[in-house]
Amino acid sequence: SENSIKTYERALIKFSRYLKFYGFTEKNFEVDSLIYYLSAHYKSRRSILTALSAIRQYLLFKGLRVRRFKVTVDDDFKEFKRIDENVFKALETEISRIRKDQLKFGLKLMVYLGLKASQISRLRKFSFKFLNDVPVIEEGNIKRILLKRDFFEEVQEFLKGISLEEPIFVGSYGSLKVTSSRVFRKFGLNLSDFRDNYVLELLKRGLPTDIVVEYSGVPLDRVSYIYRVCFLKSKVDIVEGKLADF
């Protein structure tokens, strides 16, 4: 398609600039430095793979032997998945079919706050408190702000029947892991996707990145990446725009 041709053309222009910048040739360049260079221009793993595909096809067209590029991207550059409100509603319906109230509640803590099963198993009733008038969870290094009012009301109702001494999730957290994995898989999601979307909700409310890191448990690099994907352009576009007169 015309869009594909334009996408490949932009990738080859970047490849040409990369070779010129590092002093490499089409026959002799470093794949790792190429991927690092492209990561400054593209906002997702998929777009990097598309660019590499264009470059590889070009080199093959030139008659050069090229092995398939191996891209190993850690979780900090895992492509961000924005979860639609309709998906959250469908998830709520799916969770409502589960019989055990504790499992339901545990799943909602995962969906709305991005908490791990192991973290949920450590929570106590006194973990839920207020920061001034804002409801939060604080248990050791686990910190979350309860953003949804209706969910906070569910939390209050759930905690009424739990004493201060007992954990809020009684039983094996293994069952929570198994159930959550089964439910999330139906929607093509995993726990890290919910953590990412929780980060997005904090950013949408204008919280600075250091507070987002503190109350999400997500590393600064990942928070910055999500902010860039959802609110800004690529790093290179930002720098070039700000320093156009340099």
Describe the model.
The protein has 246 residues and is mostly helical. Helix content is 57%, strand content 6%. It has helices spanning 2-22, 31-39, 45-61, 85-96, 101-113, 117-120, 149-159, 173-186, 191-204, 209-214, 220-231, 235-242; strands spanning 128-131, 134-139, 142-145. It has a three-stranded antiparallel β-sheet with strand order 1-2-3, with no helix packed on it. Helix 4 (85-96) packs antiparallel against helix 5, helix 5 packs across helix 8 (173-186) and helix 9 crosses helix 11. It is elongated. The two termini are 37 Å apart. The model has no long low-confidence stretch (mean pLDDT 85).
What is the topology, as strand order, of the major beta sheet? 1-2-3
Q: Which term fits the overall shape?
A: elongated
Which structural class matches the secondary elements? mainly alpha
Cα distance spanning the termini? 37 Å
Average of per-residue pLDDT values: 85
Classify the helix fraction into a percent range.
55-70%
| Share of β-strand residues | 5-15%
> Could you state the order of secondary-structure elements as H and E?
HHHHHHEEEHHHHHH
**Helical stretch tally:** 12
Number of strands: 3
Give the biggest sheet.
Answer: 3 strands, antiparallel
State Rg.
Answer: 23 Å
Poorly predicted regions are none
